[in-house]
Specification:
- By secondary structure, this protein is mostly helical.
- The strands form three sheets. The chain has a seven-stranded mixed sheet, sandwiched between helices. Strands 8-9 form a two-stranded antiparallel ribbon. The protein has a two-stranded antiparallel ribbon with strand order 10-11.
- Strand 5, helix 14 and strand 6 form a beta-alpha-beta unit.
- The longest helix has 38 residues.
- The termini are far apart.
Length: 794
């Protein structure tokens, strides 16, 4: 029977296209055990081991039954085998004990026979749960801790609890936006079903969600009604009472999703990897932990900002959401959601709620507590009491005052607090001036326009104040940049996308040419002792390198519409996790092809120009260029492939629990790139220098007389190492593009300040921006829209 099991295992493993080593990584069973089972040297396999192998092979029911049947003669069924495998003592467990002991003895004998006279320790007991199931479960717990820590910090930064959260309330949305209650309740056909009581307050949002059997909730609210704060509170409350069996709520800005280009699950995986780089680590099988978490239902998507999607994308987005049964929370403005529903259908099995307006009683309880006490005779008096008292007085025509209408949303209340409560010299009584502010629109624009001058008039501790006019110009550029990209996410690695693609590529090529030309000219002059020769060589090499690196950048990113993403790995030699996958093979192929292309083009142009400079005949010059193209193509192809391969061997994913913010991602990417530079330059330079001599010796006579003296090899290796590393950094890394465009070109043209990172962090600290994982977002879409309009007018 052991021989039969080994044959079945080998056949199913080969059918899955796995080697014994790959099956070891996926199952957690040692390769020696797998080899012993397949060859018949290990008999009577343990049922736990068999199930681990079956899980790792992802067997269908028929193949799984065949494997289990081959392992256990007269197998009674899955449930009986599971009980027999897991029972610690008594009954079948006792019968299995002798069998297990015999198997262990046989395994020890087989190991001793295989290793000769060498003593072999018994194999370690397998983990109680298979690695396929344990890895996503453990990653989910780490993800829950990281999400809770992040949004707790964000809630404190947004001053949600200062002095207490505004009383956000909701009621059930209208029936035309609601699916059948039988679907929402998950009732079988014919079962009675009625509507749920979905009314509630901010502190009960987690309980409201758990009362929905389908696990699908739509939060509707007009602009500024508190949808984002509600999602933040939902995530924190849900995590506080979450059980290990429940998914982890993660906030995603759905406004950045293009459902016509990428599926929902793939987009969720991309966003999860961006905001939690540790989830890029390999998970079960050949997929990442992020994919495993999404596919296994361990992530609860909280999709914020459905209304921020482009007009033509809401219908396909709603159709894509209806094509899946994932539990989720979706937020939107009512009009945009209703329009999408009119075009297709409601969100299947989703219960919608709609946020209600704040009342004057809410304002009476909140706004006076946000001001300083100024009247010593009446400590409770403040600047807001007379204003709120006036709002309660009936108007001549019976309509509410414009200010009372404006202050029904948490956004406008927060803006009014910033402009008037936090600034004693401003009197909120001016908001009652109907001649200056005849309607709601004028009041809202006044609060939006005065928000930036107010927050930037105050200097933060240890910093000088900023000019509000210049700040408004810089933020207006960023707002227009996001509007043109149709995304709410302000990513530092995409700031250069505010330029036209042709301008971005041209600037990249020119700066790369300048940097490499200066390095080459200085090194050539130092080696040759001739300043003129150094300037000439630096000019030629700089122009060629700028052209080639510019083309590589264009074909890699601009033509394909891809972004230069920050690195999700770090370089480590010691302490590498076992789960790390080395992709040295693919790096070797890509690096060799790219290096061969660069070397061939460089060699052909350099040889052609060198021959023409000595007045060689066109045919002779062409022959020289072709010979140099072959030589340098082989040299640079081999050196680049080797360097990329070694870089791939040293890369390891980041930790899931590592804190992620725009600043931390920028610093991590800079650190990774600098380490790559320190590694790439000497390795690539040595490979080019030594490889040039080797290639010349191998091709000597076949391509004519080739000359490469040691000094030339040293100069070529040194210049290539530095130039190649700098060109790779500036054109193919996120940090290099950040330095080139965001730190040099955009400030040089007045679109951004010179200290961009400090400016963005300062805007976040002042409450203008908010953090959403690895990116910033404007505090509210209304503020972004207003700034973008002002920038267009400017």
């Amino acid at each position: 029977m052991a021989g039969e099991f080994g044959a079945v295992l080998r056949r199913l493993r080969e059918k899955a296209g796995l080697t014994q080593d790959e099956l070891e990584r996926r199952s957690g069973v040692s390769v020696s055990t797998i080899r012993g089972l397949e060859t018949g040297k290990r008999g009577n396999p343990r049922m736990t081991t068999v199930r681990q192998l079956a899980d790792a092979l992802a067997l269908r029911s028929g193949d799984r039954e065949e494997l289990l049947g081959a392992a256990v003669p007269g197998r009674r069924g899955d449930g009986a085998d599971e009980a027999e495998a897991n029972a610690p003592e008594g009954g079948a467990a006792q019968a299995g004990t002798a069998q297990t002991g015999a198997a262990q003895a046989g395994a020890a004998q087989a190991g001793a026979a295989q290793a000769g006279e060498r003593a072999v320790a018994p194999p370690a007991a397998p983990p109680p749960a298979s690695a396929v199931r344990a890895a996503p479960a453990e990653a989910a717990e780490q993800l829950a801790k990281a999400v809770a820590a992040r949004w707790q910090r964000e809630e404190e930064q947004r001053r949600v609890q200062d002095p207490y959260p505004l009383p956000v309330r909701w009621k059930a949305a209208r029936e035309s936006l609601t699916d059948h209650w039988a679907n929402i309740r998950r009732q079988p056909p014919g079962a009675p079903s009625g509507p749920l009581d979905l009314s509630g307050r901010l502190e009960g949002i987690a309980e409201t969600y758990r009362s929905i059997p389908s696990g699908r909730l739509v939060v509707l609210g007009r602009s500024g009604s508190g949808k984002t704060v509600l999602t933040l509170r939902f995530v924190l409350d849900h995590l506080r009472s979450r059980t290990p069996a429940e998914p982890v709520p993660v906030i995603f800005s759905i406004g950045a999703w293009d459902p016509t280009a990428v599926t929902l699950r793939d987009w969720l995986t991309e966003q999860l990897t961006r905001d939690h780089p540790g989830t890029a680590a390999p998970g079960p099988g050949k997929i990442s932990l992020a994919s495993a978490l999404v596919d296994s239902g361990r992530v609860l998507p909280v999709l914020d900002g459905f209304d921020e999607m482009a007009d033509g994308l809401r219908r396909p987005a709603l159709e894509a959401l209806n094509a899946t049964t994932l539990p989720l929370v979706l937020t939107s403005r009512p009009a945009e959601y209703a329009a999408a529903v009119e075009e297709t259908d409601v969100l299947t099995s989703a219960a919608p709620i709609e946020l209600t307006d704040l009342t004057l009683d809410d304002l009476d309880h909140y706004l006076p507590r946000t001001t300083r006490k100024t009247d010593r005779s009446d400590p409770a008096a403040g600047a807001w009491q007379p204003v709120l008292k006036r709002l309660r007085e009936p108007s001549p025509d019976g309509s509410p005052a414009p200010l009372a209408t404006v202050l029904t949303t948490p956004l406008m209340v927060a803006l009014a607090r910033t402009v008037y409560s936090d600034t004693p010299e401003h009197d909120p009584a001016e908001l009652l001036d109907t001649e200056r502010f005849p309607g709601v629109r004028e009041l809202e624009e006044h609060l939006l326009d005065n928000f930036l001058p107010t927050v930037y008039r105050r200097s933060r501790p240890g910093e000088r104040g900023r000019d509000p006019e210049r700040v408004q110009r810089w933020l207006g550029h960023l707002a227009r940049h996001l509007t043109e990209l149709r995304t709410p996410d302000l990513a530092w690695w995409r700031l250069g996308h505010g330029l036209r693609s042709s301008t971005r590529t041209l600037v990249t090529a020119l700066v790369t040419a300048l940097v490499i030309g200066l390095v080459d000219g200085a090194m050539s002059a130092a080696f040759s002792g001739s300043l003129t020769g150094g300037v000439l060589d630096g000019t030629v090499v700089g122009l060629l390198a700028g052209l080639l690196f510019g083309l590589v950048h264009w074909f890699t990113y601009t033509a394909t519409g891809k972004d230069v993403q920050p690195s999700a790995v770090r370089l480590r030699i010691r302490g590498r996790p076992r789960s790390t996958k080395w992709r040295a093979g693919s790096r070797l192929v890509i690096g060799t092809l790219g290096g061969a292309f660069f070397g061939s083009a460089y060699g052909f142009l350099a040889g052609l120009l060198r021959a023409l400079s000595v007045h060689a005949a066109p045919a002779s010059a062409l022959e020289t260029g072709l010979v140099d193209a072959i030589v340098f193509g082989l040299v640079f192809g081999g050196a680049t492939g080797l360097s990329f391969c070694l870089l791939g061997l040293l890369e390891t994913p980041l930790d899931i629990v590592s804190a992620v913010s725009p600043g931390s991602v920028l610093r991590a990417d800079r650190r990774t790139v600098l380490i790559q530079l320190c590694f790439w330059a000497p390795v690539f330079g040595a490979a080019v220098g030594l490889g040039a001599g080797v290639v010349v010796d191998l091709l000597q006579g076949h391509l004519g007389r080739l000359v490469m003296d040691p000094l030339s090899s040293l100069m070529l290796g040194t210049i290539s190492g530095l130039g190649g590393a700098l060109g790779y950094t500036l054109t193919l890394t996120a940090w290099g593009q950040w330095c080139l465009l965001a730190r040099v070109w955009l400030p040089l043209t007045g679109r951004l300040p010179w200290a961009v990172a400090a400016f963005l962090d300062d805007a976040y600290q002042r409450g203008v921006l908010r953090q959403a994982g690895a990116v910033y977002q404007f505090r509210h879409a209304r503020l972004q829209s207003r700034l973008a309009q002002g920038r267009r007018r400017g």
